[in-house]
Amino acid sequence: MRIKVAGVGLTKFGELWDKSLLDLGLEASLDAIKDSGIDKNTIDAVFVGNMLIGKIAGQDHLGPVISSSLGLNCASFRIEGACASGGLAVHLSLQGILAGTYKNVLVVGAEKMTDAPSSQITWALMGASSSKERKAGLTFPALYALMAQAHMQKYGTTREHLAHVSVKNHYHASLNKKAHYPYEITAEKVLNSSLISYPITLFDSSPITDGAGAVILSGDDSSKGVYITGSAVASDTIDLANRSSLTELKATQLAAKAALKQAGAEISDIKVCEVHDCFTIAEIMAMEDLGFCPKGEGGKYITKGHTRLGGKLPVNTSGGLKACGHPVGATGVKQIIEITEQLRKNAGSRQVKDANIGLTQNVGGTGATVVVHVLQI
Amino acid sequence: MSSPVTVWRHHKNIKNYLGQTGKIIVWTKVYIAPAGFEHEAPYPVAIVQFKDGMRMPLQLVEYNEKHLKPNQKIITVVRKLGKVKLDEVIEYGIKAKPI
């Protein structure tokens, strides 16, 4: 696989009360089109990743909402896969290019979350869980808290290990003007913040965020640039309880193996990556499931500073979901954009030296859907 | 709020899970609850494993703090799920009680 990331566009992430979902989607799309240098009329299809807008604003049929606002009459789709909606939209658009159906596609990930009260957002997000989990009064922080408890019991992971994920990602976000929370915090602040679901605190959790990202992907591989060389999706049970393990995401392992094989790369080749740190325990498990460290060692690996800028494998240089923000349908596209900027050497003070190959991991629910991409120059 | 027919269909399955014994695998305590459960927060929820090996997430009732630990034995009981308004159908379901 060799599909060019021809253009990228990203809005500011945050509480953007003066902008609608359409405003955000169009801003990102027009920036991506401008960055690519292509005529927008050569776009053959538009793929929109979004999870919540139908539930919280009654707006379904989102593909044509975006494409028609751009003055396009091409094929357009809305893709939903919980918090992996953006990554799935990228993956599916690649299949259209590989099949020869499309040459240039626009992929938009967009979410408008702060128009609704947090209780409505919590309810809407639980649509990505099982009915048994909803009837038990579980929330997504609680589901990840159960995984954190299992990891602590089995491997001795501590709340301090969790806190260091948040501290590192806030440091990275402090270097990113587009981040929702561009400032540093301390481990003490994380540990002393209010409990959401034991042992997950407020500062172990990604925020409710508005934002959008867009990329132009092209089958034209005649020029230099950043290319997607691997793209894979794997799935698992929607219900966490009956998984073979509560301390790993099998779908991450399967998707990563397939994407790396397509790219002809090994995990040890990866120089920079964006992973799905919706809660701090998720980044610890991602490090282990992707194979960057042995199972059970993720907390220590991060606490030692290996994944901080300047370390041997910088992770979530954007600030991740935790500090850059998590507009759920946009996250998978934003991850592609951050790695593209790293490989283009456009990441400014967040730049990873010698970044020539990167990876993204985008998770839906508690790992029922996982999308992994590999990007190279 | 579930529709009356959804509640009716769900209630027919309660007997399949009632009175089963098992143990806690992992637990958490929910402080920020979803809509309909706010009045019960904070409340514990556990993944429990029954004797046949099947696992299920269940809210814990009639517990005290010493029960919040792996391998704690439980039995399933019927309890009201969430909060309902006066004109809504009351939904019942399975919860777990430490024994």
Structure description:
- The complex is a heterodimer of chains A (377) and B (99).
- By secondary structure, chain A is of the alpha/beta class.
- Helix content of chain A is 38%, strand content 18%.
- In chain A, a hairpin with a 4-residue loop joins β10 and β11.
- Chain A is globular.
- Chain B is mainly β and 99 residues long.
- Chain B has a single domain (4-98), classed as OB fold (Dihydrolipoamide Acetyltransferase, E2P) (Beta Barrel).
- In chain B, strands 3-2-1-4-5 form a five-stranded antiparallel beta sheet, with helices on one face.
- At the A-B interface, α5, α6, α7 and β5 of A face β1, β2 and β3 of B.
Would you identify the regions of chain B where 5 or more consecutive residues have pLDDT less than 50?
A: none
Low-pLDDT windows of residues of chain A: none
Shape of chain A: globular
Q: What is the largest interface, and how many residues per chain?
A: A-B, 32 and 28 residues
Q: Count of helices of chain A?
A: 14
Shape annotation of chain B: globular
Strand order of the main beta sheet of chain B, please? 3-2-1-4-5
Beta-strand level of the residues of chain A, as a percent range? 15-25%
Read across the widest sheet of chain A, the strand sequence of neighbours is 3-2-4-7-1-8-11-10-9
**Strand and helix order of chain B:** HEEEEE
What is the N-to-C order of secondary-structure elements of chain A (H for helix, E for strand)?
EHEHHEHEHHHHHEEEEHEHHHHEE
Under the CATH scheme, which architecture of chain B would be assigned?
Answer: Beta Barrel
Q: In CATH terms, what is the fold-level topology of chain B? A: OB fold (Dihydrolipoamide Acetyltransferase, E2P)
- Structural class, from secondary structure content of chain A? alpha/beta
User: What structural category characterises the helix and strand content of chain B?
Assistant: mainly beta
Which class of chain A in CATH terms? Alpha Beta
